[in-house]
User: Fold these one by one.
Assistant:
Number 1:
Amino acid sequence: MTLPPRDTLAAIAATRFGLGARPGEIARITADPQGWLRAQVRPEAVPIPLNPVGLPFPDSRARLVDFAAFKAAEKAAGADTDRRRTSGEMFRQGIAAELLGRTSIATTTDAPFAERWALFWSNHFTVSTRKSQELDALAASFEREAIRPHVFGRFETLLLASSRHPAMILYLDQQSSIGPNSKAGLRRTAGLNENLAREIMELHTLGVSAGYTQADVTEFARVLTGWSVGRREQPGETAGSFMYRPNLHEPGTRTVFGQTYPPGDEDQALRVLADLAASGKTATHLATKLATHFVSDTPDPRLVRRLASAYHDSRGDLSVVARTLIEAPEAWTDTAAKVKTPYELLVSAYRAVDQAPRDYGREVNGPLNLLGQRPLSAPQPNGWSDRATDWAAPDALVKRLQWAQGFAASYANQVDPVQLATDALGSRLRPLTLATLQHAESRKEALAVLLMSPEFQRR
């Protein structure tokens, strides 16, 4: 399969594999676009967001303490609207600072492929703030603690870290799952909750078409009983930490997806997760999602097979899978088939003008609410869609134009839109778009036209 010219490869590397080109980036990587991407496949290239003075944000346990304090202050305020608003504002400012830091990384990083790779896995293992205020406190720390440190390691490690994180357990109500024949279940009416088991099998590992049955989901849910979160009010427990509660665990031998697992408390769940991670069905499911995300809504079957083989042969080493994607000729087609999600559009615009947002509410949350993708707030556990049909409806395009005009009003006087277009798109810039920019009546109009051009809206 013949690859495009090197200047086109550089544009593809920055816009498809990366998060949009910053000024000079395409020119710098033209000599070796694939080498630039390969150099990013390392854990250190995936930064952990820090606060404005360079210190770590609170971990999940501290976030839950902050949340409890916020709720206590809100309760104490009673009907005092001003006090209630003040306590809520302090809590929300802490979360907003972290989400601003997360966006600042994306807009300024020199390793945008590594950041895109991390964002893909964060969306794959979705925890959404829409579920509850409590998850407002945990969703960002979930990405910091369970996702970012593991995206270039083994998938089994990433699967375990995400599945056991308090945010995922609370999001999918695993803490309320009680084995009917457990010690706790025999003493009171018990309920088996299948949410976590179902989403691990359907979304995180095997995929919905893998051939597992409802009985497999129920058996796996029994295996997972006992997984819970420490409670603040319980002596000896650490609030916000994973806890295994043996008195909730359903005893006995279980059979999940054709494999039999002897009794073993939490070890039983670890063995099931290891087998799910090693499954060929998981390899194909993940390969298909990666090919769809990076290249096309209808990916080349050869690319899917290539990625699935890399996963299988490396025993789920995600760094091997990432390098295989980079080196796959099917990933370098010169057709920009993917429509940017609102977050990708926002980030690529800031990268193009070589800026980072400073006001989370006005520059990040507000625009993304308008465009339909509020950070860490996917409507369902399957995360945000990255398919064109979900982001390119007429109403969505009108809102994108509204945002583009506002963004252009803020930054047009600081840039030369024609030079910016060349820097941001390289050889992907169409002559028609260039001519339109050159004849625009103002810099503001030219920048808005660039942001709405097909080649900027797609990657």
Number 2:
Amino acid sequence: MNRIDSIKIHQDELSKRYKSLIEQAYNFRQTDSALSDISEYKAIKLLNKLNRLKYLYREQQKQAG
């Protein structure tokens, strides 16, 4: 497995976790606002990581292509 594939796999895993946390934050919004805020904060941190991985993925593709 090369570097591009490993970045893409990691990106997909983080994306699934991000979607799960956003859904969790939405579901908690009516019942427990503190838990909703915590889930949203974690999702924002994951989104930051995803954006950095997208940049790395693009750079690796440019170098490979």
Number 3:
Amino acid sequence: MPEPDHMPVELEDQYHHYTGNRIPWYVRLMWVGFWVLTVVYCLRYLFPAMQRELFSGP
């Protein structure tokens, strides 16, 4: 077998098998819930508080 620095492409590529992992449905559901609650929080609490702070006089 040739040294690693001088291996032909065919030999170098033979051990590169990439497989992905599927995300479980409950992890996707947790992410969807997180983003839904983030949007609700921003609309309900963050934006009204910012408007009061930014547009109220000193």
